[in-house]
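hi support,

uploading two proteins for the ticket. first:
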Amino acid sequence: MTDADLLRTLGVDPLKLDPAPPSPWRSAGAERLAGRHPCVRCGKPSTVAGVVDTLEHGRRWLDRCTPCLIATTPRGGPRAPLADTVAVPREAAREAGVSLTIVTDES
């Protein structure tokens, strides 16, 4: 997910976010958390201070609480079709000369 996608998902206008310092910003992030900024999604106190980089508005702070961070973090998963994903261990088992059974929830 790009920064622009994340801001769209959150429904956040980057102009409403505070400007962030240029890289590296890690120490500034700790200082920012001490300021107790609200989460951009729910308004509760933030526990994570991140930075998004927007083309039009530059680097901006993106403050989120932990539940909102989890709710808006893309989950991993197979990027290829399931058949392609399970073909890899099947081929490895065949090359190793071992028996392998893969059970999936797809027909």
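and the second one:
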Amino acid sequence: MSAELFREDVGPEPVVSTAGMALLLGVDETELRDEIARQGGAERFQVPKQWVRQGRRRSKEYQAATGRFDMKGALEYWSSRDSGDA
């Protein structure tokens, strides 16, 4: 998996990049970055309700397709699917 989506070497918890978050939510990374900036930065960012719904739908689709529930697996799954490799 691309290092720019997910990192485990940052601290006690895994870190998802903006690219990874966009992938999980099913939105364009540029759109996500623009929304974060519009809201005043990452510390103030609240995921728009529509994106939350999209993310839940994608999570359920990933779970149904794979039987897995992990974030790293979801990133791998959607990275492959959205790039056309699946």
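thanks. also noticed: The first strand starts at residue 6 and ends at 7.
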